[in-house]
Amino acid sequence: MKNETLDRYAAYLAEEGNAAYLYDRLAEAEENADLAEVYRRLAATERRHAALWEAKITEAGGKVPQFRLSLQTRVSAWMAKKYGAQSVAPALARTERKAASAYDGVGAAEDAGLPSEERSHARVFSLLAGVSKGMAGGEVARFEGRHRAGGNALRAGTLGANDGLLSVYSLVMGVAGAGVGQRQILVTGAAGLLAGALSMALGEWISVQSSRELYERQIDIERQELAENPEEEMQELALIYRAKGLDEERAKETAKRIIEGGSESALDTLVREELAIDQKELGGSAWIAALTSFGLFAVGALFPTVPYLFFQGAAGIAASSVVSAAGLFAIGALATLMTGKNPLTQGLRQVLIGLAAAACTFGVGHLIGASIAG
C-alpha cells in the first residue's frame, strides 16, 4: 500500500515537473510579452504543485525521484519553438482537464486546490488555442466567446430537411429501381418519412438536452468555485484578459471590478469568458429543436414522394428526381445563411450529391429486382 502511494505521488510529481518545464519553454518562445508572462505564471503554479508532491513523498518516507523529461514534453517544446505556442495549446487544454479529473477525490490534491487550478489552466489554454499574438486592448469587448451562428432551430431544421429529402429520395429510387408499383412506392416513402422524422427528432432532443445539462453542470462548478475562492477566480479572469491583450494593471483592475460587482454578474462574465457559454441560451430549447427537426425532415421527405401521387413508372422517376433536385438546391442555398458560402455553388453541390446517391440506390434496387424476378 505504501509503495502504491509513493508510486502515485511520483507520477503526479513527474507530470507537474514536465508541465512546469514546458510552460517555461512556451514563455521563452512567445513573442508577446503579456502571453509570455501568462505562461510563466502557469509554470510557477505547476512548480508549486510539484513541491507539494515532493513534500508528500518525503512525509511518506520515500526518496524524491530524479526529474526526467518525457518524450511528449520534448516534442511539445520543439513544436512550440518551431510553430508557436498556439500549436500545442489545444493538446495542453486536454492534458490539464485530464489532470484535474485525476486529482478529483485525492485528498491531498483537493485540500491544496489542485483540481480547481488544473481546470483553470485548461480553460486558459482553450482560450489561447484561438489567440496567437494577443489582441489589442480595445478589441477585448468584441471577443466574448465563440458565438454559435444560426442557433439550434435553424441548424436542426436545415439538417432535418436535407436528411429527409436525401434519405427518402434514395429510398424511393431504390424501390423504384426494383420495379415495384406506384402504391408500394408511396407506402415506402410514407414509412421512410415517419420513421426518419421520429428518429431525427429524438436524436436532436437528446443532443440539445445533453448539451444543456452539460452547460448547467459547468456553470454550477463555476458558481461553487466563485463562492469558495473568489480571489482565485479573479486571478484566473485577469490571466484571460492578459491573454487577450490587456496589460497587467488593466487586466487586474477589470477582473477585480467584475468579481466585486456582484455574484450573479461575476458568474455570468466568468462562464462567458472561461467557458464560452451564454446563460441566456444554454444550447437552445431541446423541444423546439426536436419539433423543428421532425417537421422539416417530413417536409424534405415529401419532395421525392408526392410526385408519385400523380405519376408512375418512368414518369414518376423523372418527376420525383426533378422535384427532389429542386429541393436539394434550395436546401444547399439555404445552408449558406450559416456558412457564408456561395449559394449557387452550394446548391449545385447538394444536387450532385443527391443525384449520385439516388443513382446508386436505383442501380442496387434494379439488380435486386432483376434477381428476384429471375
Question: How would you characterize this protein structure?
Answer:
41% of the residues are buried. It contains 14 helices and no strands. The longest helix has 47 residues, at 182-228. The chain has 3 domains: 2-132, Ferritin (Up-down Bundle); 151-208 and 284-373, no CATH class; 216-275, no CATH class. Helix content is 79%, strand content 0%. With 374 residues, the chain is mainly alpha-helical.
Q: Can you give me a brief rundown of this structure?
A:
With 374 residues, the protein is mostly helical.
Write the layout of secondary structure elements.
Layout: H1 2-29, H2 33-59, H3 71-83, H4 89-103, H5 107-111, H6 114-128, H7 151-177, H8 182-228, H9 230-243, H10 248-259, H11 263-275, H12 286-305, H13 313-339, H14 343-373
Average pLDDT number = 80
Radius of gyration: 28 Å
- Based on secondary structure, the structural category is mainly alpha
Tell me the distance between the termini. 73 Å
Q: How much of the residues is beta strand, in percent?
A: under 5%
> Tally of extended strands?
0
Distinct helical segment count: 14
The tally of domains stands at 3
Low-confidence stretches: 131-152
Give me the oligomer status: single chain
Helix content: over 70%
Shape: elongated
Order of helices and strands: HHHHHHHHHHHHHH
Major sheet details: none
